[in-house]
Amino acid sequence: MELKLKLEQLHQRVSGLKDQINTEEATKNAFVMPFIQILGYDIFNPTEVVPEYVCDIGTKKGEKVDYVIRKNEEPILIIECKHWKENVDAHNSQLHRYYHVSKARFGVLTNGIIYNFYTDLEKTNIMDEKPFLTVNIEDLKDSSIKILESFTKNEYNLETILDSAEAFKYIKAIRKEFENEIENPSDEMVKLLVNRFFDKPLTANRMVSFKEYTKKALTISINESISYRLKSALSINEKIETKVDEKVNLIDENNGLPKVITTVEELEAFQIVKAILREKITAERIAHRDTQSYFGVLLDDNNRKPICRFHFNSTNKYLEIFHKGKDAGEKTLLNNLDEIYNHRSELHQTVEKYSS
Fold first, then answer.
1. Architecture of domain 2-174 in this structure
2. pLDDT tens-digit profile of 22-48?
3. Residues 160/154, Cβ–Cβ less than 8 Å
């Protein structure tokens, strides 16, 4: 996906530069303008990308939104920017005012890292309180990128976006509620499930117990489903015996939970390594496997071709790279995930070694 690749490259740029970006104006120039360019719009054409667009509000004259994107001489998107350290959710009232007086159907509030897309699904010409789409450059989701493609210059279609915006908005809301139920099951959820097989009264004490049972049951079910899919994918290109020691669905007999649980931090580290390796090889050749002792990144999904491993299961976090050979992993202490970018050359050397 070309758009995803460009966004991953922007992520690398943001990670490498953000500590040097000290103003809102610098955020716009370094992060937001490249994002607009990735969508296919000509940032150097003032009739297509209009900076400091006047949005007079009642008696307040001279109010300006940072950018307006025009297509066929009509505004289609207004963009309000903040410094990358600011919380964009705290400024949606400002975008709300601009949206009300503009003719654009979509508004974006961004700090150069998080892009919140708004429209008027609830009331015509009044911006919704919550965004229907959020694109996080540091945590790219395929589902979000698919919607974002509809905003590119070549693919923009108002009806298509509006048709999908409502579905995407409510799917996201339902997913959030479901995730909340997994983390902290409500009385309603527990009663819904338990009353189907438990015919005794749910006393307060039993409710406490069944909440814990429900949380554990949902967690196990989801993790086993993910583990099954991973194991099925991993079994395609290698013999099963090479993976016996790396099964991801082992259950701890003491607490009934999977022994191997892939963390968000491990997946974020994998995305960073993947973005680095995409400079040398295609995404299809970059695979990962999680084990009890480490999270491994492999070339061609082959455990005889390790690229690196993440040792994140202790207080100190280490990156192990195999640029000196598959039996000569070299560990480096990581203070934060961004330091992985400091090892770009070693990661490139590793994949080049397997190809030589």
1. Alpha-Beta Complex (3.90)
2. 999 999 999 999 999 999 999 999 999
3. no
Sheet containing strand 106-110, edge to edge, reads 49-54, 64-71, 74-81, 106-110, 114-118, 133-136
Nearest to 160 by CA among 119, 221, 126: 119
User: CA 117 to CA 102: how far, in whole Å?
Assistant: 15
pLDDT tens-digit readout, 117-152:
999 888 888 888 888 889 999 998 888 888 899 899
Per-residue pLDDT, averaged over 296-300, amounts to: 94
Measured CA distances, 100 to 55, 65, 76, 159 (Å): 9, 12, 13, 20
Longest dimension (CA), the chain: 74
Tokens of 118: 């708004």
**How remote is the C-alpha of 342 from its chain's centroid?**
22
Q: Which H helix or E strand runs over 311?
A: strand 306-311
Say which DSSP state 86 is in.
S
Output the CA–CA distances (angstroms, integers) from residue 307 to 8, 43, 169, 299, in the order listed: 19, 38, 38, 6
The pTM for the full model equals 0.54
**Cα–Cα distance for residue pair 17/88, rounded to 1 Å:** 19
Is 165 in a helix, a strand, or coil? Answer: helix
CATH number of 264-355: 3.90.930
